[in-house]
Amino acid sequence: MSETFLEDNFGRRIDYLRLSVTDRCDLRCSYCLPKGFRDFGEPDHWLNFEEMTRVVQAFTELGVQRVRLTGGEPLVRRDLPLLAGQLAQLPGLTDLSLSSNCTRMDKLAGPLYEAGVRRLNVSLDSLREEVFARVTGGGKLHKVLRGIEAAQQAGFAPIRINTVAMRGVNDQEIETLLDFCAARGFTLRLIETMPVGSTGRDALEDFVDLQTVKRRLEQRFTLTPDVQPGGGPARYYRVAGSDTRIGLITPLSQHFCDTCNRVRLNAEGTLHLCLGQEHNYPLRDVLRRGAGVEDLKDHLRTAITLKPQRHEFREKPSQVVRFMAMTGG
Ligand code: SAM
To answer: Span 106-122, mean pLDDT?
Structure first.
């Protein structure tokens, strides 16, 4: 096996890695982690920064140019800017980004930007303090807003706000969220709830089909299809008369597996080949046995052949037992 890039059995080129640096989170979003959940992995089991950097180097030498730090909440992992700095220096890595709930961003925005992180996705499901607290199991909206402001001041761009649409919770707030984004130059991305873990499945009770939201928004805004670099799962639209874009992530109502270009490495070193399936390849023991980059590249080439064609969220909604925070959503 000597390919210099990663291609799966369905001809999809893998050029994007989501790297989960911890499964811990300081919020308990209703669709993600159960209330009061504490059954996290042991820190001893987490990959250390050297191990993460070694495996990311192997990925970059196989053509992966883009890495997103995620979790859990990545900002709860101590010294995250150190890791970001190491990754940013890898030749071949052109895009280092972060997904965060921004509760701790006011202190970390500067160091993370200086380390080389540029793009930021923020989870934000409501701009109403009490709704935000209810959805997140006690989160403080004002802290998040302060964090977002700090990120913008530090220079992060683009900033995208990720909102899981929930019937009767925030589905009537989408126009307000869009106005919030328009005023700040952010992109709003709406996400359909996925049946990941028991929490995700329970949350399907409030499922919102984003095709219906799009039709509603079109009554107030003119939306023209827009292409965003990166080839991610969202379908983007430009909101006429502004610089704002809205993205719809519709794993259920319109899946996008044919163009899937990503894999996920969780904090314990397990490579997940699909968010909606259990296919995985454990790398931690390989790393701890001291595998070098060339060895790791062989493992990655083998792992990629396990990537399934598509998720089965609709056909088999009970299939994925792990919570989103355990995979690195
Ligand atoms: N803590 C970081 C954050 O808040 O962005 C990164 C991890 S979080 C698991 C990543 C994204 O997954 C968030 O936007 C969250 O809303 C989303 N998410 C979690 N569980 C989900 C589910 N069951 N369905 C859809 N999105 C989900």
So the answer is: 98
- Which structural domain range is residue 155 located in? 6-327
Q: What is the pLDDT of residues 194-253, one digit of tens each?
A: 999 999 999 999 999 999 999 999 999 999 999 876 667 899 999 988 888 999 999 888
Residue 1 lies in a domain: no
- In which residue are the tokens 């989160």 written? 139
Q: Residue 190 domain-assigned? A: yes
135 pocket-lining for ligand 1 (C-beta < 6 Å): no
Q: Which CATH number characterizes residue 264's domain?
A: 3.20.20.70
* Ligand 1 atom showing the smallest separation from residue 162 Cα: 14
Instruction: Name the closest-CA residue to atom 21, ligand 1.
Output: 32
**Ligand 1: centre distance to CA 290 (Å):** 32
What DSSP letter does each residue of 191-216 carry, written as one string?
E-----HHHHHHHGGGB--HHHHHHH
CA angle 33/98/324 to nearest 5° reads 20
